[in-house]
Design goal:
3-stranded parallel β-sheet; alpha/beta; thiosulfate-cyanide sulfurtransferase activity; 7 strands; Rhodanese-like_dom; Thiosulfate_sulfurtransferase; 4-stranded parallel β-sheet; Oxidized Rhodanese, domain 1; Rhodanese-like_dom_sf
Length: 243
């Protein structure tokens, strides 16, 4: 795999550039005592090869069970999930995945929701790590019993409740941003649910539009993201609820 020219994350103009760490940084800090690397893909992909020492959640949706797919885990269950991954209140979490950062950012949101903001995403993911010839392994890592206490403190400000979404429909100051696939948007792909379609008045922009093309997808620059969003009417003066 050829390594494309990638603008470093701290040069892309982000408001919060330290959201990311580079592969170089991770290689230097992977054995730090307070660092926990999480492979956020499905267990089948983790088993095919992953960054040494990385752990893998049973369910990267962090839902209440593999059968009940509606709600994020409650505080006690989420705390246990994090503890089983070796994550406690003092852990610096580094998430990575394959094919863009969607699952890593899902972990970031879930941790932020429960008050743990000490998490970053590996820029370029496993693709960049492997393209640079860095080591991978098929040996699983178990971190259960290695962590201290994970204290969940729900931050409801970043959660849009049912009532909040209903109130946003028809509100000129709020945009409901649907980042799912075209098939989910038009109702042809129900993803196992009873109904397809979208929330009335929502704006559609699949999350893949935010990533660069090529073998090593990374988040586009801030200027590119602003233009992509502005083209569908999403501007800084609006409240945005994503789903």
């Amino acid at each position: 795999m050829n390594i494309p020219s990638i603008i470093p994350p701290n040069e892309r103009g982000y408001a919060i550039p330290n959201t990311f760490v580079t592969t170089e940084w991770l290689a230097e800090h992977i054995t730090d005592a307070n660092v926990r690397v999480v492979d956020t893909d499905v267990p089948e992909e983790y088993a095919e090869g992953h960054i040494p020492g990385s752990v893998n959640p049973e369910d990267h949706y962090y839902k209440t069970s593999l059968e009940e797919r509606t709600h994020i885990q409650g505080p006690e269950q989420f705390a246990k999930t994090m503890s089983d991954l070796g994550i406690d209140d003092d852990t610096l979490v580094i998430g990575y995945n394959r094919g863009g950062g969607v699952y890593s950012f899902r972990l970031m949101w879930a941790l932020h929701y429960y008050g743990h903001t000490n998490i970053k995403v590996l820029d370029g993911g496993l693709e960049k790590w492997k393209a640079e010839g860095r080591e991978t392994t098929t040996n699983p890592t178990s971190a259960a019993g290695t962590a201290g206490t994970f204290t969940p403190k729900a931050n409801t400000d970043i959660f849009a409740s049912r009532d909040r979404v209903l109130n946003a429909i028809g509100d000129d100051d709020t945009i409901l941003m649907d980042v799912r696939t075209d098939g989910e948007w038009d109702g042809s792909n129900k993803r196992g649910g009873p109904r397809g379609g979208r929330i009335p008045g929502a704006t559609h922009l699949e999350w893949t539009n935010f990533m660069t093309d090529g073998d090593i997808p990374v988040l586009k620059t801030a200027d590119e993201l602003r233009k992509i969003l502005a083209d569908v009417g999403i501007t800084p003066d609006k409240n945005v609820i994503t789903y």
